[in-house]
Write a structure and sequence with these properties.
The chain has 385 residues and is α+β, with helices and mostly antiparallel strands. The chain is built from 13 helices and seven strands. The protein starts with 12 loop residues before the first helix and ends in a 23-residue tail after the last helix. The protein binds iron/sulfur cluster.
Length: 385
């Protein structure tokens, strides 16, 4: 059986993403085509995108940056048609989007573009049998500085900003823009987290973006050639719709009561979470002791649990590192290689007993949105509808 036999000709970011999460999930979804029940986050994301699309088309079509009355009408209808379990959450997201989205950016904006390419990266129709890769771009704008791609996210989790340059979705968008616009030299991809009204972005040069085409091809080839659907037990199982039919999951977690069933169960599990964390630490220590005494542990899927050697390098003499990099690479790259954190800066200032300098020092940094999954103190909670 090869990829063509399975109808697995067309790839996309979400197909790659599913494969990375768990190859067996990929197989069940895209090859066996076992239907998945709509999850609440999926429905919320779909409706928020529909509202953003209709709003964008309206604003661009009428040459206005915003039209709150139009948005309110869209939002009201979307919420009244939405399933009850997503209603309040969706309302909160739409309220934030209303106050933060505008279409003022530039003359050439395109909304919800459906893109399809063949294996030679030539544009083809969405349902062309030769299609190799598909993507939908929420918004693409051409400005004097380059192209901006805007992608709406309804996720609760904001990934670390340090992951942006290697984020596969951003790289895919950047590469596709080089195909659409032969003159573009700079591509900025903006992830807009509608739930919080906050954005993250990264800018790629044309040269960088062009190199990602090979990355996409290699990834597709690996999936097509390997055709291995090994279950990857782990975090993905938390949101996988196939847990009930996945033997690996059933045998690994049989009897463990940690998949949330309803609100009450969620409250109970949240309260138990710290104890489970302590149990995880205990389990890890116990396994470490076993490996120390008896050697590596072979997992059923062929991987092993072991002490893996590596090297940690710390630079005590930062001045020497800077001097070296400045001499060899120049100032810009040398300073770009170094960064510090809010915690470090605050710690040093506190140590010097100059708390009055904290705000001024932090103002020198760049704020990027982030989320931390934790039990929040009063007043620290996320804003939700
Ligand atoms: S339950 Fe976990 S291991 Fe099984 S298919 Fe889903 S993600 Fe993969």
């Amino acid at each position: 059986m090869n990829a063509t036999d399975t109808g697995l000709m067309a790839f996309s970011y979400s197909r790659f993403n599913t494969f990375d999460r768990c190859p067996l999930w990929f197989r069940l979804r895209y090859i066996d085509r076992i239907p998945e029940a709509d999850s609440a986050p999926l429905v919320t994301g779909r409706i928020a995108h529909e509202v953003a699309e209709a709003y964008g088309k309206h604003c661009i079509g009428n040459g206005v940056a915003t039209d709150f009355a139009f948005f309110d009408d869209l939002a009201r209808r979307a919420c009244s048609d939405a399933p009850a379990e997503v209603g309040a959450d969706l309302r909160g997201i739409l309220d934030t989007m209303r106050d933060t989205i505008s279409f003022i950016e530039g003359p050439a904006s395109r909304i919800e573009e459906e893109l399809a390419f063949d294996r030679e990266w030539r544009p083809v129709a969405w349902d062309d049998p030769a299609v190799f890769f598909r993507a939908k771009i929420d918004k693409r704008m051409t400005t004097d500085e380059g192209v901006i791609v805007w992608d709406l996210k309804t996720d609760r989790r904001i990934p670390p900003a340090s992951d942006l340059p290697t984020n596969p979705q951003l790289r895919i968008y950047a590469y596709l823009v080089t195909l659409l616009d032969p003159d573009v030299q700079s591509i900025t991809v903006v992830l807009f987290f509608g739930r919080y009204g906050r954005s993250q972005s990264w800018t790629f040069t044309r040269e960088e973006a062009e190199s990602y085409g090979k990355e996409i091809e290699r990834k597709a080839e690996r999936i097509e050639v390997e055709m291995e659907w090994t279950p990857r037990l782990g975090e993905a199982c938390r949101i996988c719709p196939y847990t009930a039919r996945c033997e690996a999951f059933q045998s690994a977690y049989a009897g463990m009561d940690f998949l949330v069933r309803d609100e009450e169960h969620a409250r109970e599990l949240a309260a138990r979470r710290e104890a489970v964390g302590a149990a995880y630490d205990l389990l890890t220590e116990s396994l470490k002791a076993h490996v120390e005494a008896h050697g590596r542990i072979a997992l059923p899927d062929g991987r092993v649990l072991d002490f893996v050697p590596g090297t940690k390098v710390t630079f005590e003499d930062v001045r020497a590192v800077v001097a070296f990099l400045r001499k060899e690479l120049g100032d810009d790259l040398a300073w770009a290689a170094l960064s510090t954190t809010k915690t470090q800066v605050t710690k040093v200032i506190r140590k010097a007993k100059r708390k009055d300098l904290i705000d001024a020092a932090l103002a020198l940094g760049t704020e990027t949105p982030t989320t931390t999954f934790k039990i929040a103190k009063k007043g620290e909670e996320g804003e939700e509808g």
